[in-house]
Amino acid sequence: MIIFWRKSLVMLSVPKTGTHSYIDHLQYHADIVIKHPQNLKHMGIKQFNKKILPLFPNQETDIDYFGYIRNPADWLWSWYRYRSRPEINNRPSSTAGISFRQFIDDYLDPNTPPHANVGRQSSILTSSNPNISANIIFKYENRDTANSYLSQRLGIAVNPDKFLNRSPVMNSCISKEEVAILERSIPFEFELYESAV
Questions:
Q1: Could you tell me which of 14, 39, 48, 160 has the fewest CB atoms within 10 Å of its CB?
Q2: Alpha helices, DSSP H only, in 10-127?
Q3: How far apart are CA 46 and CA 129, in angstroms?
Q4: CB burial class (10 A; 0-12, 13-18, 19+) of residue 180?
Q5: 55: exposed, middle or buried (C-beta count within 10 Å: 0-12, 13-18, 19+)?
Q6: Degrees, nearest 5: CA angle 23-187-70
Q7: CB 104 within 8 Å of CB 182
């Protein structure tokens, strides 16, 4: 999470959308950067309003909330690849030896096992109680447009040239059937993605 208090802008850190690279790139221009622990770095908008916002003066100031969102199927594929790293093979969070289809089924299971327990992008970008949502959401693939927006908003050149925390490369194996299952099962995630710039 990156807070530009003087610019009234909060950049929410949705996992697997490249925000680690933005933290590295923008940390010296920000008022507050939360890198660790992970649950604070990836704090959702609801928790920010409950836990962090009350610490600031002038809370009546209108704050813009910026975030990236990835196509939900592609986002889960990235998680699947990330958790296939050899160094975590023996951990419960590893996807070693598990097919992507099994990963999807486990993700959608109410009793989600550890290797598929990755949450929802919407839980970071939106909240139903209180009813609040990030008002500046860019699609993951529209980074050039997002960088132009951030450059203008922050008054600095924004263009991270490093890609940190990347998932291992694999040939994509997402089938149309798997995408259809996800579209039926988590429609709000797809609606939120389609509503982004």
A1: 39
A2: 19-26, 38-41, 45-47, 72-82, 100-108, 122-125
A3: 8
A4: exposed
A5: exposed
A6: 25
A7: yes
- Beta carbons of 146 and 69 less than 8 angstroms apart: no
Compute the mean pLDDT over every residue in the chain, rounded to the nearest whole number. 92
Residue in the block written with tokens 């990330």: 82
CB contact at 8 A, 34 and 1: yes
d(CA 126, CA 132): 6
Calpha distance 37→47 (Å, rounded):
14
Q: What is the band of 166 on the pLDDT scale with cuts at 50, 70, 90?
A: low
Kindly state the average pLDDT of the residues 62-71. 96
